[in-house]
Amino acid sequence: MRDEPLDALLAAFADRTPSPGGGAAAGIGCALGAALAEMGARFAGDDAAAERAAALRAQGMRLAEADAAGYAPVLEAVRLPRDTPDREARLHAALARAADVPLAIAEAAAEVAVLARRVAADGRPALTGDALTGAELAAGAARAAARLVAIDLEHAPEDPRAARARAAAERAAS
Predict the structure, then answer these.
(1) Structural domains in the chain?
(2) 3-class DSSP assignment, residue 36
(3) Counting CB atoms within 10 angstroms of each CB, which of 82, 106, 133, 155 has the fewest?
């Protein structure tokens, strides 16, 4: 993903294939939000915030790529014949594993949103809009990723990762 031109990347999302999809898009949204926070922090001379934003930007991209690749076991389980004896168990196990990446995206995006809002409040006024745009992109990424976790874990409502994802989305929104 990192090396693809933007037009090609968008075409890959639009293609009639299951991947890349929503999780990868949320990861990229997290990375975009972090990039805008990083820019605001650099202009403000806040090296610590800029370094953290840069790390979160890289993490968002890594997670986007991991999500694009990591959904393959779910698709394999879905494609099993319906009369396969352990099909449902294999599908649920694959979905449970697949929830890890969007959970990580939700948590990273929540951190980005909080950081970007701080950069907006403490940084240069001319860059407030950029930093706040970063916060909103990250908050949207956190909400989207949290929803993906909920979808992946519909079969396991007691799984604590769903609550962690919801909490991350709530942190991102405030």
Answers:
(1) 19-173 (1.20.120.680)
(2) helix
(3) 82
The encoded tokens of residue 73 equal 């076991």
- What tokens does 144 get? 């989207």
Give exposure, 56-75, as e/b (b: 16+ Cβ within 10 Å). Answer: bbebbbbbbbbbbebbeebe
Q: Which of 67, 63, 71, 56 is nearest to 135 (CA)?
A: 56
Q: Is the peptide bond before 73 cis (omega within 30 degrees of 0)?
A: no
What whole-number distance in Å separates Cα of residue 168 and Cα of residue 108? 8
- How many whole angstroms separate alpha carbon 130 and alpha carbon 87? 47
**Tokens representing 147?**
């929803």
Q: Which tokens go with 136?
A: 């909103």
Alpha-carbon distance of 171 to 112, in angstroms, equals 10
What is the rounded CA–CA span in Å between residue 41 and residue 38? 5
Report d(CA 28, CA 68) in Å as an integer: 11
pLDDT at 100: 96
Which contiguous run of DSSP H or E holds residue 139? helix 128-152
DSSP E strands in the chain: the ranges are: none
Predicted confidence at residue 109, as pLDDT, reads 98
The contacts of residue 96 (CB under 8 Å, 6+ apart) are 152, 153, 155, 156, 159
Stretches in the chain below the pLDDT threshold 50? none
